[in-house]
Amino acid sequence: LINREIVAQEALKKGLDKRAEVATQIELQRQAVLINAYLQDYLKAHPVKEDDVKKEYERVKASAGAREYKVRHILVETEDEAKQITAQLKKGASFEKLAGEKSKDQGSKGRGGDLDWATPARYVPAFGEAITKLKKGQLTDAPVQTQFGWHVIRVDDERPSKFPAFDEVKPQIEQQLRQQTVNRAFTDLRAKAKIE
After folding, report:
1. What is the mean pLDDT of residues 59-65?
2. Whole-model pTM?
């Protein structure tokens, strides 16, 4: 502390605080301290309540879905390509082999199109909806279009979802709700401010 004070006094004597770049840094630090103090005060006045954390947990748990699926897919550019692949699969071709040869999904093609276990909510809506209509071992009759291209999908297995226990995810949910509270503070202040 003594060293800090001595050096700071010497910097002031030399007028270093008057240099543009130093003055800017001092002002930025001052603003950062004030912003942090304001947000701490705001969070103290608007605390995240346990009930809110539990409600958010239940909302996320419900949106995740009760079942999860082990899915494979082959992603191609056109509907015609996808239909040709579906026809080959129905004649007994290996899904894994065709995925490795034809799929443009670099993340899964090396694993035979395997996307591992996931709930439908983890996928884009059309894909997620398609897998919920399939039974174990079943293949989509028609290709499924998403913004990524055309998918041929097979559900390898399904099981009840394993959603983490409340205590496991409580800290993350609290942090998320605190961030939402901070965002609300910024929104409220911007609404009151005269910005030119």
Report:
1. 83
2. 0.61
Q: What are phi and psi of 116, to 5 degrees?
A: 70, -165
Phi, psi angles (nearest 5°) of residue 152: -105, 125
Give the pair of three-digit tokens for residue 58: 């239940």
Which residues lie closer than 8 Å to 49 by C-beta, 6 or more apart?
Answer: none
Q: What is the pLDDT of residue 148?
A: 96
Phi, psi torsion values for 159, nearest 5 degrees? -160, 165
Residues 119, 162: Cα–Cα separation, whole Å: 10
52-56 contacts, C-beta under 8 A, 24 or more apart: 52/177, 53/170, 53/173, 53/174, 53/177, 54/166, 56/173, 56/176, 56/177
- Contact partners, residue 127, CB within 8 Å, separation at least 6: 73, 120, 144, 146, 151, 153
